[in-house]
Design a protein that fits this description.
119 residues, alpha+beta
Length: 119
């Protein structure tokens, strides 16, 4: 059961891919979790994978409150800000969701979509 959530939709990176590869982002102010995050912390964790990790009602609540949509394709990929693919990072009972990808040729964007705490 989700006990707390915050929808952020905050752009935290906009630039060439090589600038994000080793960069760290401090999310202390936005999440109150006191963490910093790197691309490698979430790049292999797609939101679709969460369906096997958390309960269906919790997953559906995240999709609804985050206003995430699917791409309509046979893979049913979830999209967030600027139609970018969604990824997550789990820290304890908290799931932090990001939208990340190539927005224009050579231009990558990273959004903090929000975070959800599960009891």
């Amino acid at each position: 059961m989700i006990t707390n959530y915050k929808k952020a939709k905050l752009l935290i990176f906009d630039g060439p891919e090589h600038d994000i590869l080793d960069r760290s982002f401090d999310l202390s102010r936005e999440t109150a979790l006191g963490i910093s995050i790197k691309l490698s912390d979430f790049a292999n964790n797609t939101v679709e994978d969460l369906q096997g990790i958390i309960s269906s009602p919790d997953f559906e609540f995240m999709v609804k409150t985050g206003a995430f949509v699917t791409d309509g394709g046979f893979l049913n990929l979830y999209k967030g800000s600027n139609n970018l693919r969604l990824y997550y990072h789990k820290k304890g009972n908290t799931i932090i969701v990001f939208a990340y990808g190539e927005f224009q040729p050579g231009r990558y964007m990273l959004y903090l979509e929000g975070f959800w705490t599960i009891a």
